[in-house]
Every structure is written in structure tokens, then in C-alpha cells.
Write a structure and sequence with these properties.
Number of helices: 4
């Protein structure tokens, strides 16, 4: 059965530094879709973050590239299997060069924290109680 995928394309200032950051979070780089202009970061079987140098990114759009450290264009949200996994990923991101972003959100049935990657893109990590999702 076909599973739709999402490819999040992000402009980065330093491709090597961005690759290092995401591999230190535990994600892998798919060499088949990576070169000196881009890196394919495998988040899951259906989620891929494409890290693109700014000159390469600009070949896909006529719009000005936002400075993610001062302008918000998108919030990327990843699910986590538990509250502990939320904390693990966000704490690891901060330890390897990311910065905490926003306040911890704890609504009982939903728990989330956020970090900014080295280029300023905001990544939210959220756990939701499966019972709350189902019903």
C-alpha cells in the first residue's frame, strides 16, 4: 500500500554543521540524495528533511529566503512515543547545538517542547495520549 511521504526542504547556512547536528540527534543521512549542495536527513520511513545550501534552495523559489533566526515561516512538529522521548530528543538537540524554543506545554493528555536547530528552524516534539487521540 502506498504511504504518502513528507519532504521538508530547509535552507541552511553551513551544510556540514547541519548534517552533524541532525546525525548527533540520531538521524541518518541518505547518501543517495545527498551531495555538496544538499543532505537528505531520514527522520522516519515517511519523513525526510532536505537540508539545502541557500544558493541551491534559491533555485526552487523566486521568493526571498527567510532568516529563520528572526522570522518564522513554518513550525515543524514531530510526534514522540512518550513524554520521556520528547525530553530526550529536545535535551539532545540542545546539547548538540540547538537552542530551547518556547515554553514546555503540558496539558495532561498532550506534552510538548520545542527547539531551534542551528539555522533557527523551530522543531516541536509532541506526545499525545493514544486514548485521547482515539476518542
Amino acid at each position: 500500500m502506498y504511504q504518502q511521504m513528507i519532504f521538508v526542504n530547509l535552507p541552511v547556512n553551513n551544510l556540514d554543521a547541519s548534517k552533524k547536528f541532525f546525525t548527533e540527534l540520531g538521524y541518518s543521512i541518505n547518501p543517495q540524495f545527498s551531495d555538496e549542495k544538499a543532505a537528505s536527513v531520514v527522520i522516519s520511513d515517511t519523513i525526510v528533511a532536505m537540508l539545502l545550501t541557500k544558493p541551491f534552495y534559491s533555485t526552487f523559489t523566486k521568493k526571498e529566503i527567510a532568516d529563520a533566526t528572526t522570522t518564522s515561516e513554518v513550525l515543524i512538529c514531530l510526534s514522540a512515543e512518550s513524554r520521556e522521548k520528547v525530553d530526550e530528543l529536545v535535551d539532545r538537540a540542545i546539547a548538540v547545538g540547538g537552542t530551547a524554543s518556547g515554553e514546555t506545554q503540558d496539558h495532561g493528555f498532550m506534552y510538548g517542547r520545542s527547539f531551534d536547530d542551528p539555522d533557527g528552524h523551530t522543531w516541536e516534539v509532541v506526545w499525545m495520549d493514544p486514548a485521547a487521540i482515539q476518542g
